[in-house]
Each structure stands twice: as structure tokens, then as C-alpha cells.
Amino acid sequence: MTATFSLETLAFDEAAEVARISGMIQSYTLRNKRKGVVVAVSGGIDSSVVAALAVRALGPERVFGLHMPESESSDDTLDFSTKLTDSLGIESVLEDISPVLEATGCYRRRDAAIASVVPGYGPGWKSKIVLPSVVDSDAFRIYSVVVQAPDGTTTSHRLTSSAYLEIVAATNFKQRTRKMLEYFHADRLNYLVGGTPNRLEYDQGFFVKLGDGAADVKPIAHLYKSQVYALASYLGVPAEIQERPSTTDTYSMPQSQEEFYFSLPYQRMDLCLYAVNNGIPTEQVTEATGLTLEQVERVYRDIEQKRRTTAYLHAAPMLVDEVPLNIKTS
Known about the structure:
alpha/beta; single chain; 7 strands; four-stranded parallel beta sheet; 14 helices; 9% strand
């Protein structure tokens, strides 16, 4: 009898997977003559699991955590990330990146772009950008900016292409500033930088090039988000972090990853992406996700579109001619 397609299809041996990932971290650290791993801890599930895996691989004394909030981070971000580093027993430092973001014009440039479509937008206002749901309509998906005035009034405005691009470009200062500090600490300690994308993020290009997309090792990029949660439970990540809703923690208004980028909550996205990758019949996907055939097909088209449009994020710099490095391995 053919097994029913469901989230149970993604189940795996957590102990064996932890051993496999730990072995990779150990061997890569040794091969590159580094002493440990730096992990930027956000209080989210992905960075928490990566930090816990690094501790399993190398021990707490060889894992260094970085807390890097800024003025628009959620109020509880630092509390969650501190719970994680305390539970793991690793050394960590706080780097408030707000002054760097102010100096580069992150907030100013973004606010000017928003003001181009929302007259009057300025100090005291909050914002986020959102996409319409891919399952609700087959219409062309265009970003809107949701703004909250100082009096609490919330309105939504369709973004022009130029305003959208400038908002994203300015906001990307946040991820790139954090990565700059990760490599500062990695360089001074002779450590590697651990990346935190899960398979949904890695496959669908949900990262900033030379920002959170940059790392020396990405231990969970092959794992679906449901599998990351399974490892979190196995590794004993604090329950509060396991129960925390996934968020971008990037914009001044609360924002889910589904609003900003993904088509669906992660459980359904896991099933759809797994089905695409493994040729699962569409009828089984509709039954497992509760989506209609038309909705599943929309999600599939969105997956393929994101793969095409974000392929450059994975690409190495283009060279005119190949330059052999002639590195001797022994």
C-alpha cells in the first residue's frame, strides 16, 4: 500500500541527522584550520538550531553568539536570543546596529521611498511591505506598503517599481551590516561564520546576497522548515523559541514571512516544495494541504518563478576567463 503523503513524509531520524551535520561542521572547521563558529542569534528557530548544532559539533566553548538588534527589532527579540545563548552556555555579545544603519542612511532612504507613494509619511510612522496571497488570486502579485500613522490609523498603498526597489535596497543594509559584524568577530577569533537559511529560504531565494546569504557553512540549508522544528525539539531549544511565530523582524510593523515572501505557512510550503522536488502527484498534495488543484498549481508556478528570479543570488561572480587556483590538497 502506498503511504499517504503528509508532513509525516518529511519525518527523519533526528539523532542520525544531528550526528551527520555535526560531523560536517567538525570536518569543515578542521579542514579550514578554524577554531570555532560564529552564529548570529535572532531568537528565531533557524539561528537557534544552527547554534545548537554548532555546540553539538564543537562544544560551547568554541561557539560564539552575536545579538544584533536595531531600533525596529521586535521588543522581545533580545530576550529570545539571550534565552538561547544562556541555554547553550555559549559566549555572546550585543552589537546594536542602529548607529551603523543611521550612518548609512538605511532608515532615511527607506522612508523617502515610502513617502513617494504615501505623502506625509515620516517620523513616528511605522511600515511593512506585503504581497497578496498567491492562493487567493491568480492576479499579478505586486507589493504594497502598509503604513501606520502616529494616531494608529493603518492604510495600504500599492508600490511603484522604483519605490519598492529602493525600500528593499535600503532595508538590505540591515542584513549586510549584521554580516559585516559576524565576519569581524570570525576574523578576530579565527572562526567560521555559520549561515542560518533553511531549505525554503535557500531554495526560494529568501536571503540578501552578501548579507544573510553569506556564510562559510550552512548546516540546515537542506532541511525543510518542519524538519528544523523537529531538530529544535530534539536539541532542546527553549520551548518559547519553538513556539515563537516566524517573522522577518525587519520592518517596524509586525510582519510574517508569508506576508512578505512565501505563499503559505511553512507547513504547507514544505509539502508543496517537497512535492515539486520529488514528483508527488498533485491529487495527493491537494489532500495533504487542503488546497484546491488550482491553488496548488499557483503555488507551483510561484515556486518556479522565485527560483528563476533569485538564481543570481546563488551565483559566483562572473569571470571572463577561468582562473585555475591550483590548490594542492595534500
